[in-house]
């Protein structure tokens, strides 16, 4: 059974290698989709892959080459170093997968990535800050009105059920009419953590904050973005922080790797279930925002998130500098869609900012 599924996993791996934003859930959905279709032929497999991996129109030719390499038996030849034509089928395009700093096409992004502001670890005091955050989170995280109601002395509506019960006990004599008001519940929080190489010295603190958030917030979803999208909500469910981060480290295969923030955000929004998490939620992106590819994908994803979310905040370690101004094309393009751009250099700064969002709203 597993051998029969090998080509499907190989296709997802080859697409990631070529720079397509493919999440693990998309791979699972792709296999399930093929099962639903039958399939009656290779065209059904192709159609399921096109639909569920959300292949952009401008990269269909590249996708077709990879698909043929996997399902037409050309995979072995594709690894041969001497055969340039076969290698092209699995190689990324010129504008998608450059990871090395020396190969950056955008001067602004290259300069920002080399900034010394990201070369110092800021772990001291993290434990105390996270402990304080967990203590105050339940009381200070954003909340929204629920449709359910509860008894209240100062409600906005007469509680008829309780009034009738009281009237039945007192033969119709009611001194005070019971009242009710709508309950509140914590608003969903979606946290996207950048684990690319440029955030290497901050990853521990950011993932530590994500764990504190997952432990203290009732409704939270956490993902990592680097060269791919990984959902780590389940891994952060462990109460022990060390054990939880160890599990997350095993699940996130692109940690300290390349940077494709725009593709990561687009991959997140391309999965309907994930996009549904954003509706009415508080969205936090913990990233330096140094997009090295075409900034269009990141700007478009930021605009979509802003329209769907309750509030959309971007926390970058670069903002620790009081003179910081977003000058890269990607971050400057996202700026009009943000409800807040703030310091994300330490867990303490992030914790204080998040706890004050509800008060400022």
Ranges where pLDDT stays below 50 over 5 or more residues in a row are: 75-124
Across the major sheet, the strand order is 6-5-4-7-8-9
Helix/strand-derived category reads alpha/beta
Estimate what percentage of residues fall within beta strands.
5-15%
**Inertia-based shape:** globular
- Output the radius of gyration: 24 Å
Count of β-strands: 9
Sequence of secondary-structure elements? HHHHHHHHEEHEEHEEHHHEHEHEH
Chain oligomer state = single chain
User: Kindly, what is the distance between the CA atoms of the first and last residues, rounded to a whole number of angstroms?
Assistant: 53 Å
Helix content: 40-55%
Q: Mind describing the biggest β-sheet?
A: 6 strands, mixed
Q: What is the number of helical segments per DSSP (H or I, 4+ residues)?
A: 16
Q: Averaged pLDDT, please? A: 81
InterPro entries: UCP010256 (IPR011195), Uncharacterised_CoxE (IPR008912), VWF_A (IPR002035), vWFA_dom_sf (IPR036465)
Protein name: VWA domain-containing protein
Keywords: Plasmid
Pfam families: VWA_CoxE (PF05762)
């Amino acid at each position: 059974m597993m051998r029969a599924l090998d080509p499907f996993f190989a296709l997802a791996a080859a697409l990631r290698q070529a720079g397509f934003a493919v999440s693990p859930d998309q791979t699972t959905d792709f296999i399930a989709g093929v099962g639903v279709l039958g399939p009656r032929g290779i065209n059904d497999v192709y159609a399921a892959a096109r639909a569920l991996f959300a292949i952009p129109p401008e990269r269909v030719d590249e996708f077709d080459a990879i698909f043929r390499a996997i399902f037409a038996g050309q995979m072995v030849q594709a690894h041969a170093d001497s055969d340039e034509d076969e290698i092209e089928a699995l190689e990324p395009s010129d504008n998608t997968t450059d990871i090395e700093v020396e190969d950056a096409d955008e001067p602004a992004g290259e300069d920002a990535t080399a900034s010394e502001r990201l070369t110092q670890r800021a772990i001291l005091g993290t434990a105390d800050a996270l402990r304080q955050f967990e203590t105050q989170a339940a009381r200070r995280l954003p909340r929204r009105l629920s449709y359910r109601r509860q008894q209240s002395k100062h409600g906005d509506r007469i509680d008829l059920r309780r009034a009738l019960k009281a009237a039945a006990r007192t033969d119709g004599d009611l001194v005070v009419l019971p009242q009710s008001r709508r309950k509140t519940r914590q608003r969903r929080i979606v946290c996207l953590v950048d684990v690319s190489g440029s955030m290497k010295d901050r990853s521990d603190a950011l993932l530590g904050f994500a764990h504190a958030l997952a432990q203290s917030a009732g409704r939270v979803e956490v993902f990592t973005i680097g060269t791919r999208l990984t959902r780590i909500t389940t891994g952060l469910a462990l109460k022990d922080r060390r054990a939880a981060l160890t599990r997350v480290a095993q699940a996130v295969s692109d940690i300290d790797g390349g940077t494709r923030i725009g593709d990561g955000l687009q991959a997140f929004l391309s999965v309907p279930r994930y996009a549904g998490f954003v509706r009415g939620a508080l969205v936090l992106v913990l990233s330096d925002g140094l997009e090295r590819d075409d900034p269009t994908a990141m700007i478009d994803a930021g605009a979509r998130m802003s329209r769907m979310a309750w509030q959309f905040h971007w926390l970058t370690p670069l903002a620790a500098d009081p003179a910081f101004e977003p000058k890269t094309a990607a971050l400057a393009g996202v700026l009009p869609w943000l409800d807040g751009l703030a310091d994300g250099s330490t867990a303490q700064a992030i914790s204080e900012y998040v706890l004050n969002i509800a008060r400022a709203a």
